[in-house]
Every structure is written in C-alpha cells, then in structure tokens.
Amino acid sequence: MENAVPEFARRLYKEWRDFTAEPVEGIQLMLNDQDMTEVQVVLDGPVGTPYDGGKFRLKMLIPMQYPMEPPKAYFCTKIFHPNIAPNTGEVCVNTLKKDWKSNLGLRHILLTIRCLLIEPNPESALNEEAGKLLLEDYSEFVAEARLLTEVHAYWHVREQAKVSSQKMHQDDHASVDMSGNSTDARTHSKVTQRNNSSFRKALKRL
C-alpha cells in the first residue's frame, strides 16, 4: 500500500524533530498537524537592534513541492523593516528566492531572517520608507522601528502584566473574603453571647 503521507510533510516533520532536539535560542518553531503547509514561528528581536525585547510572530507557507521549491515567509506582527512588506508582512530575502537550494531547510531560513533583522538590506526594499530612512537618517529609522516594536511586539509583556494583575486581584479578593468571614464570625459570637445571657436571665425569672 502506497504511503499516504506526502514527501514534503515527512521532510518537515524530520526538520521539526531536529530543531526540537537542537533548538535555537530565541526561536520557537511550531507545526500544525492538521495543516502541514503552514508553520508558525515566534522570533525574539535580536539584542542591540531596534527590535530588541520584542517577540515577532511569523508564518511560513510550505509548498507541496518543498524542498524543491522554497517556502514563503511572512511577519504576522507588524514591523518597520526595509525587507519586510508593510502591508502583507512578506519577507524579501534571496534565500527564499534565487539562492534557494533543496538542501536548505527551516533552520537555515529562520537564522537568515534573524540576520536580516540585524543587518537590513536597503538596496532590496519592500518597505521603501524604511529603506530610505535607513540610508538617509539612521537615528530616525531606529526610532520608528523601536516605536513599532514596542507597540506591536511587546504583546508578551502585556499578557504577563495582565496575568499578574488578575492574580493580585484574586489575592485581594481572597483577603477581603477572609476578613469578611472573620468579622462575621466575631459578630455571630457576640450575638450568641447576648442570646445566651438573655436566656439565663429568663430562666432566673421562672
């Protein structure tokens, strides 16, 4: 019986296992068992760049002819970068085009994209504004790239702050409940004492 698993899926799964066995710091790679044609990635912004501290979500669309044909890579997190299209997030890098070879793989692609964040190529710009700023006013380019990173790629910081806030709220609520229960207990004790005293006085009058 012919194996029903496509060749590209077997190749992808092997690459994922190899990546999991020897991970790259700052890069998370996730396969979708239900749809092997789309690979999810979370890439940490490289230290010393305007993207430092951000976490960028990417997707790679894998053709059925992979690895004979290269994947397409897209930033799902908005980013200001000469080689990343501002509207679609498509990544422009030679590795995914004319320089692609079938012996390359996901690890090589992701390392190349990370290098692209460290050393943008303004001569091959999909974002013309970013490319122009990089060449003519580097400090302004850094400021704009940093701003978009803080607005769009700090989602993990906001999620952590939200979780911490919820935990503090739950702890405060628990403290109020405990305090309220303690007050209720003291009030109940005083009422019981008064009732017992009244009962004893009533017995004496009998």
TrEMBL record:
InterPro entries: Ub_conjugating_enzyme, UBC, UBQ-conjugating_AS, UBQ-conjugating_enzyme/RWD
Gene3D superfamilies hit by this protein: Ubiquitin Conjugating Enzyme (3.10.110.10)
Enzyme Commission number, as recorded: 2.3.2.23
Keyword Nucleotide-binding carried by entry: yes
Annotated Polar residues bias: 178-199
Domain UBC core: 7-154
One annotated GO molecular function: ubiquitin conjugating enzyme activity
Record: active site: 92
UniProt xrefs under Pfam families: UQ_con (PF00179)
UniProt KW keywords: ATP-binding, Nucleotide-binding, Transferase, Ubl conjugation pathway
SUPFAM superfamilies according to UniProt: UBC-like
Top-level division of the source organism's lineage: Eukaryota
Alphabetical list of PROSITE patterns matching this protein: UBC_1, UBC_2
Keyword Nucleotide-binding set for record: yes
Top-level enzyme category: transferase
Region Disordered, residue ranges: 165-206
Family: Belongs to the ubiquitin-conjugating enzyme family.
PANTHER family given in the database record: UBIQUITIN-CONJUGATING ENZYME E2
Record protein name field: E2 ubiquitin-conjugating enzyme
Source organism: Schistosoma curassoni
Native organism taxonomy: Eukaryota, Metazoa, Spiralia, Lophotrochozoa, Platyhelminthes
